[in-house]
Amino acid sequence: MAGAWSTPASAAAAAAPAAEPSVESTLEKERTIKNILELRDGLRGLLVRITEVEKETDKLRNDNEFLGTYIDNLTRNTVVAAGQKR
Q1: What is the pLDDT of residue 78?
Q2: What does the alpha-carbon distance between residue 5 and residue 23 come to, in Å, rounded to a whole number?
Q3: By the 8 A CB rule, do 22 and 29 touch?
Q4: Distance CA 84, CA 40 (A)
């Protein structure tokens, strides 16, 4: 009778390691992983740039609104001043 710690023959066969991967498949896997990491880093860089551009766009939008208000006020004051001179 087999001891409590022995494994059945079918379980031992299932636990046996698969055939070693070929050198070519290992190299291809390494190239794929390297490519994925490079693409990931590129995406990170793009996300940083997008954030910077969004901040700059918001700043320029606020500056444009301020300048628009300033020009409107100057135009009103000029019209009022011109009306008083008549």
Answers
A1: 86
A2: 37
A3: no
A4: 66
Q: How crowded is the C-beta side of 19, counted as CA atoms within 13 Å? A: 4
Tokens 């208000």, located at residue? 69
| Cβ atoms of 30 and 37 closer than 8 Å | no
Residue 3, amino acid: G
* pLDDT on residue 75: 92
Intervals of the chain under pLDDT 70: 1-18, 85-86
Residue 46 in tokens:
């793009």
Secondary structure (H, E, C), the chain: CCCCCCCCHHHHHHHCCCCCCCHHHHHHHHHHHHHHHHHHHHHHHHHHHHHHHHHHHHHHHHHHHHHHHHHHHHHHHHHHHHHHHC
Rg over alpha carbons for the chain, rounded to the nearest Å, is: 36
